Amino acid sequence: MDTREDRADASATSTTATTVSASSFCQQISPEEYARQSQEYTRNAIEALKQSSEYMAYLYRCHHCGSVWYHGQYNPGCVQCGDGAMIRPCPICNSRCGAVFTRDAEMSHSFNKAHWNGNCRLPREEQFRLLLPSMDELCAELDDTV
Hints:
Blueprint: H1 4-25, H2 31-50, H3 53-59, E1 87-89, E2 100-103, H4 105-111, E3 116-117, H5 124-131, H6 135-145
Antiparallel strand pairs: 1-2, 2-3
C-alpha cells in the first residue's frame, strides 16, 4: 500500500534530483566562453544543414527547368541538365571505356550548361579520333554549304 509517508519520500527524492540536474545544467560562464560556444554551435548547425537532404536538393537542381539532379531527375532537352542527373557514362566514347563522369553543379550553374568531371579511359589517339570528324566528313560539310 502506498502511504502518505512513501509519497512524501518520493516527492522529496524527485525534488532533490531535479535540483541537482538543474544546478549542473545552469552553470555561469564568461562572455568569452559564451561567444566561443555560440560560434561552435552555429558551425555545427550549419554543417548539419549542409548534409540535409533538403539542402542537397536545393543545391543540386537545374535553374532552367527545375529538375532536381540530387533526386535523379533531369530533362534531356535542357542545356543545363545535359544527359544525366548527377552521374553519366563517358560522353567521349559513349561509355565504351566504362568511365563514369560526375556533374559539377557549380560550373553547370555558372555557365548555364551541363558540366561534367571525369576522364575517358581510352588511349588519347582513339579519343581524338572519336571527337574530331574525319577529313571526308569535313569536306562533305563544305561541299554542302557551297
